[in-house]
Amino acid sequence: QVQLVESGGGLVQAGGSLRLSCTASGRTSNIYAMGWYRQAPEKQRELVATISNYDAPNYADSVKGRFTISRDNLKNTVSLQMNSLKPEDTAVYYCNVRTAYYGDFWGRGTQVTVSS
């Protein structure tokens, strides 16, 4: 099992910035990818950004150039720097990890609200 703890959400005005962080604990040795997803009210959960052991970071088109994902393998953390935030970025953001043997794990989510 892998446990995930997220932090960094909050309320920000349009054009502002927030940084989300997620720390994994437990069976972390099998993690091969970490990332962030989000879910707005009445919408499906969608990928925001992912970073793996094998490929370059992957971003949703809607956040390219504004968001940056980074990973610290020694600390088992993944962060999402969000700049130039827009009201349409408002959502609950979920940390996700993918493991080789145990499948996917999700954090509880952190609310990001961008006011216009």
Please characterize this protein's 3D structure.
- This protein is 0% helix and 59% strand.
- The protein has strands at 2-7, 10-13, 18-26, 31-39, 46-52, 58-59, 67-72, 77-82, 91-99, 103-106, 110-115.
- The strands form 2 sheets. Strands 2, 4, 5, 6, 9, 10 and 11 form a 7-stranded mixed beta sheet that branches.
- The N and C termini lie far apart (40 Å).
The main sheet comes to: 7 strands, mixed
In round numbers, the mean pLDDT is 96
Shape: globular
Order of helices and strands: EEEEEEEEEEE
- Alpha-beta classification: mainly beta
| Helical proportion, percent range | under 10%
What is the CA-atom radius of gyration, in angstroms?
Answer: 14 Å
**Could you give the count of β-strands?**
11
| Measured distance between first and last alpha carbons | 40 Å
How many helical stretches?
Answer: 0
- Which runs of at least 5 residues are low in confidence (pLDDT < 50)? none
Beta percentage is over 45%
List the helices and strands and how they pair.
Elements: E1 2-7, E2 10-13, E3 18-26, E4 31-39, E5 46-52, E6 58-59, E7 67-72, E8 77-82, E9 91-99, E10 103-106, E11 110-115
Parallel strand pairs: 2-11
Antiparallel strand pairs: 1-3, 3-8, 4-5, 4-9, 5-6, 7-8, 9-10, 9-11
Gist of the model:
The protein has strands at about 1-5, 10-15, 20-25, 30-40, 45-50, 60, 65-70, 75-80, 90-100, 105, 110-115.
Key traits:
single chain, 116 residues, mainly beta, seven-stranded mixed β-sheet, 11 strands, 59% strand, globular
